[in-house]
Amino acid sequence: MLVKTVHRYWKPTRRPQWMCIFVISFFGLASSSALAQDIPITDEKISDVEIPAVSKQIHHMIKKKKIAGAVVMVSWKGELIHYQAKGMRDIAEKQSLQKDSLFRIYSMTKPLTSVAVMLLHERGLLNLDDPIERYIPEFATVQVYHKKNNKALHRRITIRDLMRHTSGLSYGFFSQTAVDAMYMKDHPLYSKNNREMTRKLSAYPLLFQPGERWHYSVATDVLGDLIERVSGQELGMFFAENILQPLQMNDTSFSVSAEKRDRFSSSYSAGVKLKEKYSKSHYLNANRIQSGGGGLVSTASDYMRFCMMLLNGGELDGVRLLQAKTIAEMTTNQLPKGVFSYGVFGFGLGFQVQLYDWGNKGHVGEYGWDGAASTHFWISPRDELIVILLSQRQPYSAQLKKTIKPLIYQHIK
Prior knowledge:
Layout lengths: L2 E4 L15 E4 L26 H12 L5 E8 L2 E12 L4 E2 L6 E2 L5 H13 L36 H6 L13 H8 L8 H8 L17 H13 L3 H10 L22 E3 L3 E4 L20 E2 L1 H12 L3 E2 L2 E2 L3 H7 L15 E2 L4 E2 L13 E5 L3 E6 L4 E6 L8 H14 L1
Helix pairs in contact: 1-10, 2-6, 2-7, 5-6
């Protein structure tokens, strides 16, 4: 089996095994056999690697004020083929983005929460088809909205429903229904903690019967509360002990510490108008809600390590988080027959899945997700490709991904 290495941003020298960085082996969806290999490193940064067409397009988007800047990291067949930081971390202070700059990754938190649920599943602490009320009793009385009289559920909401967004929950922000209007009056996400969040949420009716259709929602936030109740730990602590520390994702957390504040990026709206100053962000508050649906900050290299674990069938640097068959299940379409994500996509257990070959715009089997501040990632197993695109542009825009994706696929062709 082909096993290659990818450096984070150091050049080779001799170091102990615990400092090994990315090890990746291509695996089929049915099975995987991960191999570990030492990667000696130092803290000295290596030179940039680039796909010229990608660098040119990022420069163009910055010049046209589409984004303030971006960090782009691309791994192909275990080799780092593009890793650059372009533009500004904070325009007013003339602070340039660096490769280790911290980004609000918002909904790119969801795949980590999904992995955490599957860790509990593999340990026999929950089953995917269990009704959620078994662990969160507040959902025992939930009904489906009807303008006259709410209707009883045809079946209970399951953990699987939450993971694939077929629960009947909504978001409040992305659609305009009577249920969304209820959310916006006292939004569950504006809570002190996950327990309070689900208490508020369970008082609202569902948008539709569980399993009936796909609808993007706060379901993954409910999974965050589920993890806390089953594990007996706060979500951040469970992440740290079971995902972040084993994968050496040392810059990923639910808040930005004081010593890392000057690596945190400001967020910008259209025309690079300031949305949120890095030094005045609520992410500096360590006591904010630990949102499983969108609360993490991270770096490109940290998230690459997470993605390499996925592509390597659940293992990285000799540390196994999940079994290969579990990763295969998570990244394969789990939607009921005739149900699609956004009309054309499949959805696994935490990831959107590409069902059709769109040439340079998307390959069959590709999976990934995005974040509200225009952060993106996707993994194409058949190409052994991982792409991380991090900007801080709000409201969400897919322009960065739509522009860069064809350039990357053209390059590896």
